[in-house]
Predict the structure.
Amino acid sequence: MIDIKHLTKSFQTPRGKITVLKDFSLTALNGTFLGIAGKSGAGKSTLLSLIAGLQKPDSGSIKIDTNEYDNSPTEITSLSEKELSAFRNKNIGFVSQEQSFLENLTVLDNVRLPAYLSKSEKKKLVMLNLFLHLSNKLSNQFRNDSKPEVITERARSLLEDFDIAHLADQYPQNLSGGENHRVLIARALINNPQIILADEPTDSVDSERTEEIIHIFRSLANQGKIVILVSHDKEALKLCDKIITI
């Protein structure tokens, strides 16, 4: 469950202070497919970033209950950056508008990456070095390192779901915008998160692929996950249980 109470977020701009969310409240239960609509600049993407802990609100509460150990929800605004990172990697799949890939890793490795960020400190160090692009040699070591088969199988299965399995050994720079967008969605799902936040996930994707992606999100919600979809596309929102305009 996601429980948001009295959320306010403002930004300082050359034109002065702009408030994009003011006293915003929302509750999304497990199994909900929620659509978020609204004009550009209304705060849709900001809302997703706040839920994911990528930004801090000016005031308000964001509680997330993953139902893993007890009934005590996590107040993510009170977590440290390290705690937030671990919580987000485990529980939240975030599909942003920015195509943030490691260019020296293949599509398959980019999709598998979050699964290894949740492993040992040694693995985290290797991933950090990769992120900093210290060397192609290190990148090759990552690709050749032994990994649990279940992670690779899941990654390939996700690529198959989005009809990009044939691109597993390609690099992001060789893909189209629509193909890279589907890679981002696959990567967001690799850890089987309870919450999926999707910011314009069908942008640059044709109508046939849009329908396939939305049906996958619908299926995930039917499995008890929370899916929050931000989109300007009315067709992409048609399978949502509820649409909120902000």
Observations:
- The first strand starts at residue 2 and ends at 13.
